Amino acid sequence: MKPKFLFSDAKAGLVVFLIALPLCLGIALAQNAPLFSGIISGIVGGIVVSAISGSKLSVSGPAAGLTSIVLTSVSQLGSFEAFLLAVAIAGLFQIILGVIKAGTIGYYFPNSVIKGMLSAIGIILIVKQIPHLVGYDKDPEGDETFFQGDGENSFSEFNHMMDYVSMGSIIIAVVSIAILLFWKTKFVKQNKFMSQMPSALVVVIVAILIDLIFNRAIPQFEVKEEHLVKLPEFGSLHHFFTSLTHPDFSAWNNPKVYEVAAIIAAVASLESLLSIEAIDKLDPDNNITPTNRELIAQGTGNLISGLIGGLPITSVIVRSSANVSAGGKTQLSSIIHGVLFLIAIFLLPGLLQLIPLSALAAILILTGYNLAKPSLYKNMYKQGLDQFLPFILTILVMLFTDLLRGVSIGIVIAIIFILKQNYKSPFRVIKDTIDGKLHYFIKLSQNITFINKGKFIELFKSIQPNSVVFIDGGRAAFIDKDILEMISAFKQSSLLHNIEVNLEDIQEVEILTNH
Asked: Which phi and psi angles does 117 have, rounded to 5°?
């Protein structure tokens, strides 16, 4: 955290806070948990996780991707308090994963899949925020799943929203989008005062003023209370601390608690590692996050969140990408967003509850567009089918199911292409006739695995009797024992066909035969 970045981090922290506030509350609502638990996890994710994490730009908080797990787990365990114990134990599991260096799995996600995941998140943001843009709020903020809790899906929601259109919300949304676009122009960037003002803050201030004007001058356009930010209010520190929910430690001997904890730890860790990998791709300074340290940070966050009544925490792409867009530079921006949660619930609850959700929807839609720009699809297509197919399938599956299923399908497709490529080119063969005798010069590729066995079988079958074979393994960094065994067996059997085999930089394996 460097002092020279204090102002840019403070601006980014404010923008992230404005976006995270309704998302934390919406996710708590979607997970059928107390609204206050969403705020708690936002505070812990912002302050605790960011202070420990090595990520410059990641922002952590309650995870929409865990909604179905939370709903099922609370039902299985019988109470929210028993579930909190599982969250705390999940945090301990994550700390252990970080200590044993399980975070290195984060380095092996294909770029095409990560780009697909980011683009899908962008599309989901746009699709999910359009109803909020016009004043239709049946689906809570922060819900990212295709099939919604209200019985609708992401697209059927559009049919119903037209019956609940609020002119006030639409006007505020249009003005908000216009401000956000205007703030990207050269005029603003070259203006010393305006360029220092976060566009999201300008949007929120203007939106509140427009709604106050509607309230006094055009009441029929006034935004209804249900389409404004809702926030729990606390009159004092004592009220705050007495509102905290603590785990039911008597459930420690329930095996289901540990089963739920293991599931939360596994899913939250995977989502965090995916998010970290994605945010590192967006980072203009190309910082690389230490993944094992990230698991320890996330685990500490979940341990504390579970102990004081919060929801499970992960690194979250939406908030993190908003942090990048707002110009965040260090962990301080995320810590500031967490501190602002504390300030908000004590000092500014009345003011924050004047913010129209349509203004925040406009900010999120522009954030979504930045993640899913049309130029990205063109660039991925140009890179070839092996990049484009995992990319586009990740997007499609995420849109119609969820993040983990989309990423899983993308990784499977990427692996199929890798296996196909490995099967195609395990070696290079040059044939030449020297002194009337056929010579084969076989140069092995860098990595030779058991997948290449079929190609070697075909090669050895094609070699003519009475020939000379040179097999060079000098370029190979790895040769599978199965392949070494095949080469040794070929050399041994070649004597029967008068084939001379010469091996270079290849370790022969003893071939055992049964008699």
From this structure: -60, -45
> Where do the domains of the chain lie, and which CATH numbers do they carry?
9-165+233-355 (no CATH), 425-504 (3.30.750.24)
Closest CA to 261 of 274, 251, 273: 251
Q: What confidence score (pLDDT) does residue 2 get?
A: 62
Phi-psi region of 447 (alpha: psi -120 to 50; beta: other; left: phi over 0): beta
pLDDT at 1: 53
- State the Cα–Cα distance between residues 498 and 121, nearest whole angstrom: 62
- Provide the whole-model pTM: 0.80
Residues 76, 78, 79, 81, CA torsion sign? negative
pLDDT at position 291 is: 92
What's the number of CA atoms in the CB half-sphere (13 Å) around residue 371? 30
SS3 track for 357-384: HHHHHHHHHHHHHHHCCHHHHHHHHHCC
Q: What is the DSSP string of 253-303?
A: G-HHHHHHHHHHHHHHHHHHHHHHHHHHHH-TT-----HHHHHHHHHHHHH
Q: Reduced to 3 states, what is the DSSP secondary structure of residue 333?
A: helix
Picking from 298, 318, 409, the residue whose alpha carbon sits closest to that of residue 361 is 318
Looking at the DSSP bridge assignments, the partners of residue 472 are: 443, 504
Please state, as a whole number, how many other Cβ atoms lie within 10 Å of the Cβ of residue 263: 17
Return d(Cα 137, Cα 297) in angstroms, integer.
Answer: 34
| Cα 58 to Cα 45: distance, rounded to the nearest angstrom | 10
Which among 460, 119, 395 is positioned nearest to 282, based on CA atoms? Answer: 119
For residue 173, how many other CB atoms are within 10 A of its CB? 27
pLDDT tens readout for residues 158-208? 777 777 788 999 999 999 999 999 999 999 888 888 888 888 999 999 999
- pLDDT tens for each residue of 251-283: 999 999 999 999 999 999 999 999 999 999 888
For 147-166, the three-class secondary structure string (H helix, E strand, C coil) is ECCCCCECCCHHHHHCCCCC
Low-confidence ranges of the chain (pLDDT < 50): 514-515
- Measured distance CA(171)–CA(206) in Å, rounded: 11
Closest CA to 105 of 321, 407, 316: 407
CA trace torsion 464, 468, 474, 480 (10° rounding): 40
pLDDT digits (tens, 9 = 90+) for 397-437: 998 888 888 899 999 998 888 777 766 668 889 999 998 89
User: For the chain, what percent of residues have pLDDT higher than 70?
Assistant: 95
The letter for the amino acid at 434 is I
